[in-house]
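Q: What would this complex look like in 3D?
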Amino acid sequence: MPEKTIRQALHEALVQEMHRDPRVVVIGEDVSGGAGTEGGRDAAGGVMGITKGLIKEFGERRVIDTPITESAIMGAAAGAAVTGLRPVAELMFSDFMGVCFDQIFNKAAKFRYMFGGKARTPLVIRTMVGAGRSAAAQHSQSLYHLFTAIPGLKVVVPSIAYDAKGLLIQAIRDDDPVVFCEHKLMYDLKADVPDEAYTIPFGEAAIVRDGGDVTIVALARMVHYAAQAAETLAAEGIDCEIIDPRTTSPLDEDTILESVARTGRLVVVDEATPRCNMATDIAALVADRAFRALKAPVRRVTAPHTPVPFAPSLERLYIPDPERIAAAVRSVWSYSA
Amino acid sequence: MTRAITMPKWGLTMTEGKVVRWSVPPGGSFSAGDELLEIETSKITNVVEAEGDGTLLRVVAPEGATLPIGALLAVTGPAGTSDAEVDAYVAGFEVVAPVEGAEDAADEAVAPREIEVAGQRLRYLDMGSGGVPALLLHGFGADLNGWMFTQPALAEDRRVVALDLPGHGGSGRDVGVGDVGALVGVVEAFLGALGIDAVHVVGHSMGGGIGLALAKRRPDMVRSLSLIAPAGLGPEVNGAFIEGFVKAGRRRDAEAVLRLLVHDAALISRAMVEDVLRFKRLDGVSAALEAIAGAWFGGGRQQWIVTDSPGVPTQVIWGREDQIIPVAQAVSLTGVAVHVLEGAGHLPHMEKAHEVNRLIGRWMNG
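A: Here is my prediction, written as C-alpha cells for the whole assembly.
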C-alpha cells in the first residue's frame, strides 16, 4: 500500500469527494493559493498546500477565495450547507474562531434543532491546531475542546494519515457540521493510505497499542509522543495501552472505559491548556463510570494554564513531551493507596 | 543432515516474528508433524510443525526474541551430532535477506500482481513453479492473504496461484449479479489470461463452491478439487454470520463476528480485525459484499446447491467445530474423500495448517 503524508491524504480526500459529488465546494482565505502573486492562482494551494491544484481542476465556482473575514466565510458556508451544498470551509487557524464563533455555534450547530430536524447542515470546517512552530499565542492553541463543548458540532482530531483521509471523507459525507482539526506540525507524517476512497465512522477510537498495565488516552501529536513513552516504559516492564479517540465529539467512551476496566490506571495526554479540556473531560468520565476499577488516581499531562509562549525555548517546555508522559505513567504504576 | 529452522513469512505484510515458546526442549527429539514452536506476528499467532523426524540440536532464538523473516531460530539434525558441527553450522548460516538489495528481490518475488480480465483489475499472488499449477480460491469476505500458511507450503512442489475474487482484496469491485455463475466466469477467464489450461483447485467456503462449479463447467481443465468447508453442499449456513460480517463497521462488531470463524478465538488478533475493517470501509466493498451475500446466502440459506458428484477427483476437508457451515454437509456428495479435523472451526487451513497442507499436497500428487 502506498505511503502518504497527512497533507497528501487530505488533498486526496478533497479531490475524490469533489469528483464524486458536485455539491462539494471549498471556501476560505487563499484556498486557490497564490492569487495576486507572481506565480498566479494555484501557486501555493493555501498556506499548507492542501488545496493545491483544486482551482485548475474544479474552477472558481467550486474553489472560492474569500476576503480576510472569517465571519463571512463561516456564515456563507453555513448558509450554503442548509440550502444544499456541502461546503468545506477553511478556518486557517482555530485561534481565529473568536471572530466567527456565532456563525459556528449559534447558527451551523443549531439549524437541525431549531428547524425541528428538517434542516441539515453538511458543513466541514477544516482548521489548524497545535503549538511547536513558534507561531506565538494567537496561532498555536489547541482549541478542539471548545468546539467539543457545543452540542450539534462533531469534532475530529486525527493523528495519522490513514485516519485523516477516512475521517475527512466521512466528515464531507456527514449531514451535520464537523470541525476537522489538523495539527500544524503533523502534515508531513507518513502512513499507509489506500488510493481508493473510504470512510471511518465517528465515535470509534483507535487502539494504537495493546497493553495491560496502564491506559494512555492521547490526541493528535500526543498520540506519537505517547507511543514513544510507551517504548521507553516497555523496556522498564510497564505495558501501556494507547487509545486515540480520533473524534472528541462523538467520543468513544466504551473503548476508554473497557480499557480502564482492565488496567485500572489512566493517564490522559492533551496538548490543550488544562482547564475544561479533553483530559479533564475524560478523567471525569472515568471517575464517574469506572471508579471501582481505578487502582490509582487519574493523571493528566497537559500544557500549563498560560498562553503558548513565542520563545522556542519556552515553547518546548510548554508542550507535553514523552518524558513527562512516561513520568506520569510511572507515578500511576507505582502508586499504592 | 543438519538443518535450520528459520523465521517463516506468513502473509504479505510480515517482516518479523516473535518466538512465543518452544514445545520441544533443547536436545529433545521430535517426529514429523510435531509442534516445534509457536510464533507471534503483528497479525497472527501460530505453530511451526516439524517436517520430518529429528533432534532439536540447538535453540538459537530464545523465547521472547523478535527476529526478521529468514532468521535462524534453531538447528536440527540427527541425535549425537557434535557441538563443534552445530557451532560450524550456526557460524556458517546465512540469512536469506540480510542486505538491502536481496531484501527487495525477495519482496519482489512474493509481491502480488494485477491483471486486467474482462475489463476489471484482478489481484493475484503467484508462487513456485513447475507441475500442474494449483489455484487457491478464498471464501466470502476474505482475500489471498487467507492462504498465508497454505500457499508457501504447496509452492514448494508446484506453481500455486492465489486469486482475490471480484469485490475482494485488491481486485475490482464489480461482481455483476454476484452469484456462482458470475464468479466462476471470472475465474475461468482469469485462468485463460494466465494461459493455464490444467489446474488443481483448492477452494475454501464460497471459493469451494466456485471450485465445484468450475469442475462442472471445465472437467477438461480441473485435475482435482480440494474443498475446505465448501459452500454448495447443503442449504444450511450461519445467516447471522453473513449478515453480521456485511454490516460490521466497528471494531467490536467485527471482532464478535470474526470469532465465529475459528475454534480458538485467540487466532483473531486486533490487527486482523483492523485489516478486515480497513477493507470493508473502502468505497464499493459494501455493495459488492451485499450482492454476493444475497446471491449465495440470501435469507440465511444457501441459494446454490449441487447434488451430483463432480466428475473429477475430489476431497472435502472440514473442521469439526465449524460454526459457519455445518460439518454434517461434508458427507453430502458420494464418491469423494472426506477428512474431518478436530479442534478446527471454519478455517482449518489456518488452524490446522500443516495437516491441511499435507492432505492437499497428497491429493494433488495423486
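A: To summarize the key features: The two ends of chain A are 49 Å apart (CA to CA). Chain A has a mean pLDDT of 96.
Q: Very helpful, thank you.
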